[in-house]
Amino acid sequence: MPEAKSPAITVSAQAQYIEEQSDAEAGRFVFAYKVTIENTGDTPAQLVSRHWVITDAAGHVQEVRGIGVIGEQPRLAPGEAFEYTSGCAIATAVGTMRGAYQMVAEDGTQFEAEIPEFVLAAPGMLH
């Protein structure tokens, strides 16, 4: 009996505060985040688009949707990973990001790869 091939994408992200681009008095806190997208399934898949939900400590939500990431729509074979760095600015020293990548498997199946929520925090803001 043939095995069913299933798409599986694992996403991890890590944020870093960018002090030199931030201005606390003006309410601008800039963060870089590095994302790793790994194909942990057994079928190739391509990242088509993204949806980010960025929330600051005041509860203000920014939603970002777009095609690809950093101008690319990477295709990942099983076992392959794609890593990129991007950034965002929020009005508070602490916030969160989460979201999903819209993916298409080799057979045309569309699915979402969840981006687990991670924290944006200026140094000394989390105890």
UniProtKB/TrEMBL annotation:
Annotated ranges, domain ApaG: 3-127
UniProt-listed Gene3D superfamilies: ApaG domain
Pfam assignment, any one: DUF525
NCBIfam families referenced in this protein's UniProt entry, alphabetically: PRK05461.1
Protein name: Protein ApaG
Species annotation: Niveibacterium microcysteis
